[in-house]
């Protein structure tokens, strides 16, 4: 018996040793893989009047957005304001999840609330993680669903190299973007919501007895700079999106992966100084793709059979006219990168452990190149299929315009599929909480003479 026990112990020791060796090997491989995205520089300068790229360096390579993520949270907030779903005085209640976000934060306790405007101001100046989460939960029902809405909106804007996993930019290996996509978003914010864009030039605001100063040090330093957003984590490096408008010229520039805040700011200042004189004073038409099609909606049969419509009329020129092939899928990212120290976000030990486990679990579950951001198993509404992605987007735009109330909480996206060796694109709306919600939305669309059917993703 003692010999048997000795043998078991011996084998256990061997197994444990093998496990340790394997674990170390996996850690090394994963850590090496993370270097493909971590803290590498990328930059782009875009003429915001014409959409012409004036400068580009690794602009299509995947990078971590850090707090640049909040630009999309603000985009969806502005959209909700513009549609009248919320007002500047609407209370934003902070859940336990929002209140527990690590700094930087506004510091609202669980159950407390601020107005939408205060939340916006805290995000554009202090880059408040708790405010961003609270807004996301209010607009999306949950932060997870809001992240799906963010990614769906990114696809609609043409940001095909971006996936969002949270509302604030806290470390997550499944959340990434490109410098080009951030330029698209920067221009879209001004083009679509000029009535709210002035928030990005806010350098400070008063909250209670405190005066909260902003992080964007180029405001007031470089003539013509009017925003937009800074961001930093150890994995991302120092990021910055800047907008410049002066003497009839407009630029949006992006710098990612800076070694320090100062070097990032200096690089941005140099790019603005070099390329602003090369920007056009004349606009080149609409910069963000919009639907000008008068084609009828495609019929979407309840059987699930695809009815393929002829291509819609050409859409207005997209923001960035040249379409680039997506960068290769990144290798699994080190889970440890998800808990790196943050300048704008300081993670405590218990939170870091949780973030590590979550990051590692999600790292291999991301399909960043899919056009659909809706989780598998969720219910969506399909309105059409088309032979081109632009054609599918045209159907989405038309449905949104015809039935804004029915689709107020939905996000349009496209899904590619093959039929007879040819690639087509489904036009779908996601963001529905249940089968009944999707069917009810479809019923409302049919009342507007929009054919559709609810289907499980």
TrEMBL record:
Q: Name one GO molecular function term.
A: carboxypeptidase activity
Q: Which Pfam families match?
A: Peptidase_S11, SPOR
Q: Which residues form the SPOR domain?
A: 373-457
Name the InterPro entries on file: Beta-lactam/transpept-like, Peptidase_S11, Peptidase_S11_N, SPOR-like_dom, SPOR-like_sf
What is the annotated signal peptide range for this record?
A: 1-33
Which key words are in the record? Carboxypeptidase, Cell shape, Cell wall biogenesis/degradation, Hydrolase, Peptidoglycan synthesis, Protease, Signal
**Which family, according to UniProt?**
Belongs to the peptidase S11 family.
Q: Which PANTHER family match?
A: D-ALANYL-D-ALANINE CARBOXYPEPTIDASE, TRAFFICKING PROTEIN PARTICLE COMPLEX SUBUNIT 12
Please give the name of this protein. Answer: D-alanyl-D-alanine carboxypeptidase
- Which species does the entry assign this protein to? Ollibium composti
């Amino acid at each position: 018996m003692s010999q048997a026990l000795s043998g078991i112990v011996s084998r256990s020791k061997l197994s444990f040793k093998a496990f340790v060796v394997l674990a170390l090997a996996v850690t090394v491989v994963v850590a090496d893989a993370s270097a493909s995205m971590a803290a590498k520089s990328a930059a782009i300068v875009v003429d915001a009047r014409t959409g012409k790229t004036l400068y580009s360096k690794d602009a299509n390579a995947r990078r971590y957005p850090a707090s640049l993520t909040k630009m999309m949270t603000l985009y969806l907030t502005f959209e909700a304001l513009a549609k009248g779903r919320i007002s500047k005085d609407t209370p934003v209640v902070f859940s336990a999840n929002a209140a527990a976000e690590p700094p930087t934060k506004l510091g609202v306790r669980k159950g407390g609330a601020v107005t939408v405007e205060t939340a916006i101001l805290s995000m554009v100046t202090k880059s408040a993680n708790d405010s961003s989460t609270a807004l996301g939960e209010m607009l999306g029902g949950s932060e997870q669903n809001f992240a799906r809405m963010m990614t769906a909106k990114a696809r609609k804007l043409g940001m095909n190299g971006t996936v969002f996993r949270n509302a604030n930019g806290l470390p997550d290996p499944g959340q990434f973007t490109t410098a080009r996509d951030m330029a698209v978003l920067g221009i879209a914010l001004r083009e679509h919501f000029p009535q709210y864009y002035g928030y990005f030039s806010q350098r400070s605001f008063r909250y209670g007895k405190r005066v909260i100063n902003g992080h964007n040090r180029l405001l007031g330093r470089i003539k013509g700079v009017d925003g937009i957003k800074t961001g930093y984590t150890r994995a991302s490096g120092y990021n910055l999106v800047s907008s410049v408008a002066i003497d009839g010229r407009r630029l949006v520039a992006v710098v990612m992966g800076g070694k320090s805040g100062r070097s990032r700011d200096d690089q941005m200042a140099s790019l603005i100084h070099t390329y602003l004189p090369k920007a056009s004073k004349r606009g080149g038409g609409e910069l963000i793709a919009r639907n000008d099609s008068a084609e009828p909606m495609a019929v979407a049969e309840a059987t699930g059979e695809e009815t393929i419509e002829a291509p819609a009329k050409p859409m207005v020129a997209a923001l960035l006219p040249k379409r680039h092939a997506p960068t290769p899928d990144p290798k699994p990212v080190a889970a440890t990168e998800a808990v790196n120290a943050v300048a704008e976000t300081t993670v405590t030990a218990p939170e870091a452990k949780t973030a590590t486990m979550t990051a590692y679990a999600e790292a291999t579950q991301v399909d960043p190149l899919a056009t659909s951001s809706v989780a598998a198993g969720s219910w969506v509404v399909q309105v059409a299929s088309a032979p081109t992605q632009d054609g599918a987007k045209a159907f989405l735009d038309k449905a949104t315009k015809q039935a804004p109330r029915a689709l107020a909480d939905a996000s349009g996206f496209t899904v590619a599929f093959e039929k007879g060796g040819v690639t087509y694109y489904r036009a779908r709306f996601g963001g529905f909480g249940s089968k009944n919600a999707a069917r009810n939305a479809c019923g409302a669309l049919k009342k507007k003479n929009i054919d559709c059917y609810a289907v499980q993703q």
